[in-house]
């Protein structure tokens, strides 16, 4: 284990402590508790993705006239204009073509909160980036459709006791509501425990056509996983070189588990 891996493991534990502390310091006010949780995750991201990256919060609009719900953490690419309002010190407008990815921070991801989160993600996926970079070879139609959507990650403190219950609820929601592949979540992290990939044709984690499946990493070092994952995402503008941090972080594939029966249901339902 390198110094960076160890540091990220400690900071993963600090996030869990901060989530618990937020519940006490927030005095039971849901919004205040949520703000404190979000603030800690934001502070970690600022450390590992410093300027010219910037973090915003709010709704995202695209050039086609659509607007998304509000999200906790919206990572802006360096090409995004500085739309900070002097009055509120927040971005007065967030433009889809300058957004790299979003993260929504949750306390307990289950039941109604899970349903709301999946519904919010579906709405976000209706927002489209133009993604028209003529200096690069033209991608396939499937790959281009994926690149035009904004990657989204759920970062939660806890969920159902058995992680398969979470996966089953997600699969049931997508089949029941006929949610198509490009309108689904990309990654869900349960701090200090699990990371769930939603892999599909031309997904963010592979960039190529693969078999359809949702799988789970039993990953205690959540920050290590998160930083590696988002470093590999296609940004609003293509990277000329890979982020330095990707050279120091690796996925441990021995910790991966796929659920064949549940994934077969998704395939048969054509979602």
Q: Care to describe what's here?
A:
A hairpin with a 3-residue loop joins strand 5 and strand 6. By secondary structure, the protein is of the alpha+beta class. The chain has an 8-stranded mixed β-sheet with strand order 1-2-3-4-5-6-7-8, with helices on both faces. Helix 1 runs antiparallel to helix 2 and helix 5 packs parallel to helix 7. 36% of the residues lie in helices and 17% in strands. The chain has one domain. It is globular and about 45 Å long.
Q: In total, how many beta strands?
A: 8
**Model regions low in confidence, pLDDT < 50 over at least 5 residues:** 201-210
Fraction in helix: 25-40%
Biggest sheet descriptor: 8 strands, mixed
- Tell me the span between the first and last alpha carbons: 39 Å
User: Radius of gyration over alpha carbons?
Assistant: 18 Å
Structural class: alpha+beta
Q: Mean of the pLDDT scores?
A: 85
Q: How many distinct helices? A: 7
In total, the number of domains comes to 1
Strand order of the largest sheet: 1-2-3-4-5-6-7-8
Strand content: 15-25%
- Overall geometric form: globular
